[in-house]
Amino acid sequence: MRTPSHGHRVVRQVVLSLILVVVGADLKVGPYHVGAYQSDYDPDAMGTFSIIARDPATGELGMGVQSKAFGAGNRAMTIKGGLAVVAHQAAANPMYGGVGLELLGRGMAPEQALEFMVRADEGRDSRQVAILDAQGRTAAWTGTGANDWKGHRCGVNYCAQGNILVGQGVVDAMVTSFQGSSGPLAERLLAALDAAQAAGGDARGMQSGAIVVVRALAGSAGFSDRVVDIRVDDHKAPLVELRRLLNLVRSGQLITDANRVQREGNVEGATAAALKASQLSPENDNAWVALAAIHLKAGRKPAAIDALRKAIELNPANRRQLPRNPAFESLRDDPAFVAVIREP
User: What does R_g of the chain's alpha carbons equal in angstroms?
Assistant: First the structure.
């Protein structure tokens, strides 16, 4: 049997190989140097605030981020359901995500993994990194070379961090919001981002954002870990857009619930769920189609026609698709239905 010391040496060898061979080769740098300093590529610096968090009731891990940089959601996080989430920002280097998950998967605690990676990184002073694992343990690093204001606050099940902020109050606002909130993790993360922006946010302004929540085997048929995965790469009000997208996600989930409840014979319950879906995301034409089908099932033809008219208004392609939908087979020769389909 391998001893713990031998296992630790194996982990060190794996990580050093990854840093030297993979990262070093990609970036054309020497041993242990895993990226340029922030000042070397300032236009791409991740002036960012973010929060990583865990819901102990569901086992979900998540991250919310907003940045005055393009595509923060694609560059500032690495996350895996059942394992950990890593935020890598300021002079962001995704090495901390890929290698960090490798170390955590081999049994290191977040503090150990972060210490190992920071020690191996000559660009450490320009980095900001935070790690949260599936047990709720955290670790964070804010380099002295990251632009002010910079800092982090971590506790059990969360870590909030930021750089190029208007002040410490931005990070404090995220922590206060998260600690005082309840409900689904995605909504709590977005509320924390809203609180941070209300406290001043990124000193340079707003551009992109993302909310990602994962749980092992949570995706369709267990083939992915994504519970929520929404991102805004370039927008004048990215948090407002994230809210719209999250409402669209929840609307879709309500449609699924409505269809299930209808199959179980609860038409009124299905109607309530479909109505909520259409109210939560009024632009979602699928919600209006689902509501129309449920109205028709309940014998409410005028209400069904009105819902179909709204669906067509939102998406004219429904003129072509609705006559092919088996849910509306009984209406195919109905004058009111034909009139709605033909309306210019």
Answer: 24
Residue 119: partners with Cβ closer than 8 Å, 6 or more residues away:
none
Token duo for residue 244: 């719209």
pLDDT over 90 percentage in the chain: 73
Q: Would the CA dihedral through 101, 105, 108, 109 be positive or negative? A: positive
Let me know: does 178 contact 53? Beta carbons within 8 Å. yes
Which range among 29-33, 212-216, 319-323 shows the weakest confidence by mean pLDDT?
Answer: 29-33
Tens of pLDDT, residues 115-166 = 999 998 888 999 999 999 999 999 999 999 888 899 999 999 999 999 999 9
Q: Letter for the amino acid at 110? A: P
Q: Which residue is listed with tokens 């819901």?
A: 55
* Helical residues (DSSP H) of the chain, grouped into ranges: 4-17, 24-27, 72-75, 95-105, 110-119, 169-179, 185-198, 238-263, 267-280, 285-297, 301-314, 318-321, 335-342
Cα(193)–Cα(196) distance, integer angstroms: 5
Mean pLDDT of the residues in the chain: 86
**pLDDT band of 37, cuts 50, 70, 90:** very low
Polymer length of the chain? 344
CB < 8 Å & 24+ apart, contacts of 270-275: 270/294, 270/297, 271/295, 271/298
Tracing tokens 């191996």 back to the chain, one arrives at 120
Longest dimension (CA), the chain: 79
262 three-class SS: helix
Instruction: Pick the range with the lowest mean pLDDT from 63-77, 105-119, 125-139, 164-178.
Output: 63-77
Backbone φ/ψ region at 131: left (φ over 0), alpha (ψ -120 to 50), beta: beta
Distance of alpha carbon 93 from alpha carbon 178, whole angstroms: 26
Span 163-177, average pLDDT? 96
Question: Which residue segments constitute the domains of the chain, with CATH numbers given?
Answer: 36-92+125-235 (3.60.20.10), 249-342 (1.25.40.10)
